[in-house]
Amino acid sequence: MRANSVDAGDHPVPKGGNLTVPVVPPVSMVNQLSLRSFNIAYFHLKKWRAGRALAHYESFFYPLDNLLKWNRLYGPKGFFQYQSVVPRGVGRDALQAMLGEIARAGDGSFLAVLKTFGDRQPVGMLSFPQPGVTLALDFPNKGERTLKLFERLDAIVRSAGGRLYMAKDARMPRDLFEAGYPRFHEFLEYRDPGMSSAMSRRLMGI
């Protein structure tokens, strides 16, 4: 699916989803069998409905809102979202390398979002966007296996001169943070020394 913004006047706001995942299953329902079946079915459904049409931005940008408490599908161990941004010039090669690593690991994502950022540099000292391409992928938490995959993806992002999204981070290594956010030293000048968190200690040592 792709779209361009348009001023359509008073376009009706879609109603929220009524479907809810009622319980947390004992194991993740997101696996190789379900991913393949879902992606094939979703692709052919969209292909069948292909064509130009108006869509409200909420239903376009937030399709998961149609299924409440969808995160329960990942089971009791939950999931990680891995989101990176890499410069546009190396974007194709870097994304192909990441997708190749994911395929070799036998993993996949129930949700994939690919976006491009414009050429405007961010104002914030720890802003995530940079001119380039960003890819967000969801992965069931399979423990050490998932973390090892992320280390290989980290290496690709680091080599491409990219960075990870801090707001969705739970395990970024400190060296990747420092390489991806070179203005973090400026940020430290404004940090309240009386405040600390697991993330700040992991990424900044404070």
Ranges where pLDDT stays below 50 over 5 or more residues in a row are none
Read across the widest sheet, the strand sequence of neighbours is 4-5-3-6
Order of helices and strands: EHHEEHEEHEHHH
Give the helix tally. Answer: 7
Task: Report what the structure shows.
The protein has a domain at 26-169: Alpha-Beta Plaits (2-Layer Sandwich), CATH 3.30.70.2520. 35% of the residues lie in helices and 14% in strands. The radius of gyration is 19 Å and the shape is globular. It is an alpha+beta fold and 206 residues long. The mean pLDDT is 91.
How would you concisely characterize the structure shown here?
With 206 residues, the protein is an alpha+beta fold.
Lay out the secondary structure.
Blueprint: E1 19-20, H1 32-48, H2 57-61, E2 67-68, E3 79-86, H3 91-104, E4 112-117, E5 132-140, H4 144-160, E6 163-164, H5 174-180, H6 184-188, H7 198-204
Parallel strand pairs: 1-2
Antiparallel strand pairs: 3-5, 3-6, 4-5
Helix pairs in contact: 3-4
Structure characteristics:
single chain, four-stranded antiparallel β-sheet, 7 helices, Alpha-Beta Plaits, alpha+beta, 206 residues, two-stranded parallel ribbon
